[in-house]
């Protein structure tokens, strides 16, 4: 099983410069190669493969001396990433056409070999940059084989290393307790046993603050000037926006980690609906709410934290079906209906709880378990 862990780095001044330079080199190579790919296609309709582009690297390095400062595996990895970006573009329903990289947006480089981490001193030995200190904090140690690592430089002046590793250990929990999870906008998640995880309120207030800061930044932007020529006030605003963005991301991730860990520690079979997040994002009003919730991130976390995650088709009518008698009430498509009474059996339903129970039953039947009826419980708050 592949897992990733992220540590914050504490590089020296010289190391910071080296990291920034390496990010710059990777960005340069990416942009040059993208340009060559586009050029070759325009010229005679040929597609340059990753192999061909990697073969062009030595020549490019002799033209641009500074590329030699960067770990060479990182540069090759960039070309592989570019190739991946193309494959994603051609895949059905895939991403957009690969774009040229800009400075300050996701500055990073990946090295596809192991790094050595010394947990006595909390340092990591990396290619070309040398031994960098790690902030210990509450971080866990890696138990497994390291596959690759990525060093990132954020626009708020922080440095991180994400380490991808393979582990053999299988989670220990086997209490045969199952649960269905309904993810929503009003409440973040409702479990089939009645536990409700609310959406965070302080996140909302931060989003309001963010909107104000963004407005200030755009007011201070002078259209006819280049980025470097903009006023110091504009630069300050941009920094503030980036800092708040980062805080919001941290808060959200922290919450998602807490919920997913709690669920993984309490249930051994977890059923969840696969969401059509992309389709939902097209709905403008839903989009903001969804991107705040971080649903796909949450499903991702459950995926690596739980042993038995059963995903149910997104077309399964979990909220419309009565859990007791199976009657399908199509009026419930309207998201504003929070509670309803089944016209056939007369059961009173909480929309999300009913959905969660249906998801649990469907999930269990998918993995061949016999399911008996559940009793309705009043929503309760989780002990986080
Ligand atoms: Zn019914």
- Which ligands accompany this protein? zinc ion
* N/C terminus separation: 27 Å
| Computed structural class | alpha+beta
Quick one: overall form?
Answer: globular
- What is the spatial order of strands in the main beta sheet? 2-6-7-1-5-4-3
Number of strands: 14
Order of helices and strands: EHHHEEEEEEEEEHHEHHHEEEH
Q: Largest sheet, if any? A: 7 strands, antiparallel
Helical region count?
9
| Estimated radius of gyration | 25 Å
Roughly what fraction of the amino acids lie in strands? Answer: 15-25%
Helix content: 40-55%
Task: Describe, in plain words, how this protein is organized in 3D.
With 384 residues, the protein is α+β, with helices and mostly antiparallel strands. The protein contains nine helices and 14 strands. The chain is globular and about 75 Å long. It folds into two domains: 2-166, no CATH class; 178-200 and 249-366, Nucleotidyltransferase, domain 5. The strands form three sheets. A seven-stranded antiparallel β-sheet has the order 2-6-7-1-5-4-3. A five-stranded mixed β-sheet has the order 10-9-8-11-12. It has a two-stranded antiparallel sheet with strand order 13-14. Zinc ion is lined by residues 322, 324-325, 327, 342, 344-345, 347.
